[in-house]
Amino acid sequence: MATVEIVSFGFLHADAPQADIVLDLRRAFRDPHVDPRMRQLTGRDRLVRHTVLRTRGIRQLLKATTRQAQAYATGPSVDRIVIGSGCAGGRHRSVVVAEKLARRLRRRGHTVTVTHRDIRRPVVQR
């Protein structure tokens, strides 16, 4: 079975990583950054996680991406699948989606690593 590498990142810091699947969470999903209570938090904080996961469409996206990754894994020469999970600053939505996706894929037998490329960067002023 293919191993899966998930990289969360912020489009405002640098280009998306080279990946087989890139999720762009910037426009379609609620941004915790706009709420001053969550701005300095990250996707590892409960309030941010709950806010993101309650956003309409996120669970369907997770389900569809899980299926897409499994489809890639059935390829005859695939040993590694890279998934990029991106939002504006790489601290909120991308982190929550990366972690939740990793859990789903692990439950299906994949070996998964998660890297949060931009989680420690300063909050983007916008």
Largest sheet: 4 strands, parallel
Query: What's the mean pLDDT score?
Result: 95
For the termini, the CA-CA separation is: 42 Å
Can you count the beta strands?
4
Radius of gyration over alpha carbons? 14 Å
Looking at the structure, what is the overall shape? globular
List segments where confidence is low: pLDDT < 50 over at least 5 consecutive residues. none
- Helix tally equals 3
Secondary structural class: alpha/beta
Percent helix: 25-40%
Query: How are strands sequenced across the largest beta sheet?
Result: 2-3-1-4
- Domain module count: 1
Description:
- With 126 residues, the protein is of the alpha/beta class.
- The protein has one domain (3-116).
- Helix content is 31%, strand content 20%.
- The chain is built from three helices and four strands; from the N terminus they run ββααβαβ.
- It has helices at residues 46-53, 58-73, 93-107, and strands at residues 3-10, 21-24, 80-87, 112-116.
- The chain has a four-stranded parallel sheet with strand order 2-3-1-4, with helices on one face.
- The longest helix is centred in the middle third of the chain and has 16 residues, at 58-73.
- The radius of gyration is 14 Å and the shape is globular.
- 33% of the residues are buried.
- Pfam families: PapZ_C.
Core attributes:
126 residues; alpha/beta; 4-stranded parallel sheet; 3 helices; 4 strands; 31% helix; globular; RNase adapter RapZ; RapZ-like
